[in-house]
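Reopening: TIGR04219 family outer membrane beta-barrel protein still failing for me.
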Amino acid sequence: MRKLMLAVGGSLILVAPLSQADVVGLGASVSYWDSDLSGKAATNNDVVDVENDLNLDSDTNANASLYLEHPVPLLPNVRLNYTLVEQSGRGDVGLAGFDGVTGEVQSDLDLEQLDLTLYYEVLDNWVNLDLGLTARDFSGELIVKEALTGVPSSQTKVDAVIPMGYLAARFDLPLTGLSVGAEGNFISFDGDSLHDFNAYGQYEISLIQFRAGYRQMSIDYEDDNDRLDVEIGGPFVSAGVSF
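Support: Ran it again with your exact input. Result attached.
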């Protein structure tokens, strides 16, 4: 069942005079995220530890972003961001089992999200500050099945479109091409919460940007009888272009 969360704690837009780009700007980047997973999943009142019981390991992490900035007053800038995390593992849930599955199990976890962010540049000099709102189309699915036969199997699934606050700050070191920054999305509402933050160092030469940093994502979300309460974190590297 798709749930729509309608509130973000506190209004972000706008608390300071806006800054517009002088010309139209376009940028894109791709990144590799070496993440680890911890936490729990639950369905029908059964709970399993995704790290210790299922031994989930990262197989695929994909992330890509695209942004457009413009000089038109009052209209927000636009950013799209896509993240895919796929993890699998072979573990043991014992005789107590999980949702009807017992003993040695094969598990697969897929987390996919597409963000549409509308934001304003509050500061745009050697200190850069962006504030805005993100609509995140988020889905997560955990499949747990008996390792040898594939039956029985269990499916834990959450699916939602979630509004989140967006904050990004960057500090440029003059005449070096180097900068440091952080950005994130966040919401906490009615017992559910999602937080997605990263901090990085960046080097820019001509139109090319290289980043390295650390990203941490925390998901605590319930959809009917299914719940994911997991954390994903680890270092990342990215390369991008800006025009």
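The chain has a mean pLDDT of 89. If you still see a failure, please send the error message rather than a screenshot.
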